[in-house]
Amino acid sequence: MEKLVARAVVEVLRDGGSEAIRLYAAACTERMAPLFMGLRANTPGREADLDFYAESVRDLWHVDRPLADSAERVRLLERFPELQPNEEGITDVVDTYAFFAVLTLRYALLAHGSGDADDAVSCGHAALTAMGMLDQNVAGAGLLTEEQRLQSLSLNSDAAGLWDASVMAGRERFRAVLGRLPRSACF
Q: Quick one: CA torsion of 38, 58, 22, 149, rounded to 10 degrees?
């Protein structure tokens, strides 16, 4: 499958070093975080998962050094229901976008720990795939284009401005997904 991440972004990630990789992965994950946090907020028994997810996203922003426990975090994340095989597959809106949010975090944790550009590209690819799907289901959304823009920006920006832009984009994504849910399913 062809990667959705722009060739120029991939080249900068491969040439930019570990800190650039960690910043890129942190920003991608921040933009996806509301999809997991918001969509799973009222799910009984998921409190520890929500805390773990939020803590991991926060810790990804320490881009000056790799997370010492990134491999352990990946192992814990891989126990999340979103990453468990399911014969029926993922069929509903909430599960789809929660899955992509968890997948993005998984690759971000891998990239943060290893400094591997390919893990970072996979992180960006997961975010772009989710936004492409959302664009197909929300008329005029433009979320894929915005994610591509923010991925490029993450390689040319300071962490503070990028964090602000990522938080705002994440909120917009969450609103778009909520708009796809039947009124009876809204939180």
A: 40
The per-residue pLDDT of the chain, averaged, comes to 92
Residue 50 reports pLDDT greater than 50:
yes
Burial of 125 (0-12, 13-18, 19+ CB in 10 A): buried
Distance CA 136, CA 146 (A): 14
Residue whose C-alpha is closest to residue 124's, from 98, 157, 94, 155: 155
Dist. CA 6–CA 44, nearest whole Å: 39
The CA-CA-CA angle for residues 84, 180, 151, to 5°, reads: 70
Q: Which residues of 128-159 are buried (b: 16+ CB within 10 A; e: fewer)?
A: bbbbebbbeebeebebbebbbebbbebbebeb
With contact defined as beta carbons under 8 Å apart, do 28 and 108 qualify?
yes
The pair phi, psi for residue 183, each rounded to 5°, is -50, -40
Exposed, middle or buried by CB within 10 Å (0-12, 13-18, 19+), for 24?
Answer: buried
Domain locations along the chain: 7-180
Topology of domain 7-180, per CATH?
Answer: YP_001051499.1 fold like (1.20.1590)
pTM score above 0.70:
yes
DSSP secondary structure letter of residue 115? -
CA-nearest of 142, 145, 112, 113 to 30 is 112
